[in-house]
């Protein structure tokens, strides 16, 4: 039996009383391919898997939210769904700070969290924001649009990033002779996704640093086996899977660890 799999919005409004759900916080990549959410859904047959993709949600809504605002929204949605039940929560890569805040929000609302896994966790900072923006502008053929500095204010930085992205994408559309419809798709759907990704990174980088809750397990690849965030590995149960990072989430070893941890009794 394949697990029922959907976004948090698709499950909202359902009252899955007494169930133990799996929540996965990750991002659909720009290139097509299986996400960690897809891998989890295939690894835990018979379990409902709820997927949270903050970048997709921000791209659709166009909102600018703080990390705590995002976490509170998702915690409220989940608390209204898993009435009297419990959750296993898995966060991947740059989703680590949101996952940590989400787990705390769930605990504050009296939701029972059975297992917490952070897979290859990383904490975004302003250096990453600038690096990612520069790479996008280079791809658009407009590296000269890179701002000398971004405003300290999160909303102001978001406005500036959206401005330069829109300018760069418009120039790219013109340089490639795209039709009006093609240009709208490029600057709309793709531009919204780029802006939302950077908006999430800004929100995560601006949030107060927080440590994972007690009992959290870290799952690391062989080439990221050191403490990804200083101090975490020394104070958390760490599982190292002996495959490179780029192969981690598709590896049989990773899927076996998922099954063992998520299906285990508390």
Account of the 3D structure:
With 266 residues, the protein is an alpha/beta fold. The chain folds into two domains: 5-123 and 209-263, Rossmann fold; 126-206, no CATH class. The chain has helices at 8-11, 36-43, 54-61, 67-79, 96-108, 126-140, 154-175, 180-206, 232-235, 252-263; strands spanning 5-7, 20-25, 49-52, 86-92, 112-119, 217-221, 237-241. Strands 1-3-2-4-5-6-7 form a seven-stranded parallel beta sheet, sandwiched between helices. Strand 6 (217-221), helix 9 and strand 7 (237-241) form a beta-alpha-beta unit. Helix 4 packs across helix 5 (96-108) and helix 6 (126-140) runs antiparallel to helix 8. The radius of gyration is 19 Å and the shape is globular. The mean pLDDT is 86.
Short description:
The protein is α/β, with parallel strands linked by helices and 266 residues long.
How many helices? The count is 10
User: What sort of overall outline do the alpha carbons produce when their principal axes are compared?
Assistant: globular
Approximate helicity band: 40-55%
Say which CATH homologous superfamily of the largest domain is assigned.
Alpha/Beta hydrolase fold, catalytic domain
- Top CATH class of the largest domain: Alpha Beta
Order of helices and strands: EHEHEHHEHEHHHEHEH
Quickly count the domains: 2
Which structural class matches the secondary elements?
Answer: alpha/beta
| C-alpha termini separation | 23 Å
Widest sheet: strand ordering = 1-3-2-4-5-6-7
* Whole-number mean pLDDT: 86
Instruction: Note the beta-strand portion.
Output: 5-15%
**What radius of gyration results from the CA coordinates?**
19 Å
Largest sheet: 7 strands, parallel
Instruction: Please identify, by name, the CATH architecture of the largest domain.
Output: 3-Layer(aba) Sandwich
Uncertain spans: none
How many distinct beta strands? 7
């Amino acid at each position: 039996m394949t697990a029922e799999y959907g976004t948090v919005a698709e499950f909202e409004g359902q009252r899955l009383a007494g169930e133990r759900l799996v929540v996965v916080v990750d991002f659909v990549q720009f290139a097509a391919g299986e996400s960690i959410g897809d891998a989890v859904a295939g690894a835990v047959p018979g379990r409902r898997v709820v997927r949270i993709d903050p970048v997709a949600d921000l791209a659709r809504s166009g909102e600018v939210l703080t990390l705590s605002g995002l976490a509170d929204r998702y915690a409220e949605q989940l608390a209204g769904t898993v009435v009297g039940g419990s959750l296993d929560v898995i966060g991947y890569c740059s989703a680590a700070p949101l996952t940590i805040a989400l787990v705390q929000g769930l605990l504050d609302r009296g939701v029972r969290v059975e297992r917490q896994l952070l897979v290859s966790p990383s904490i975004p900072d302003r250096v990453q924001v600038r690096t990612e923006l520069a790479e996008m502008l280079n791809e658009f053929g407009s590296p000269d649009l890179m701002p000398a500095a971004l405003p300290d204010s999160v909303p102001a930085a978001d406005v500036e990033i959206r401005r330069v992205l829109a300018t760069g994408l418009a120039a790219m559309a013109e340089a490639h002779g795209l039709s009006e419809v093609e240009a709208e798709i490029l600057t709309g759907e793709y531009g919204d996704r780029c802006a939302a990704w950077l908006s999430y990174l800004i929100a995560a980088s601006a949030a107060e640093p927080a440590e994972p809750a007690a009992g959290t397990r870290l799952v690391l690849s062989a080439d990221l086996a050191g403490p990804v965030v200083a101090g975490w590995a020394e104070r958390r149960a760490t599982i190292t899977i002996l495959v490179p990072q780029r192969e981690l989430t598709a590896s049989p070893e990773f899927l076996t660890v998922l099954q063992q941890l998520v299906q285990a009794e508390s």
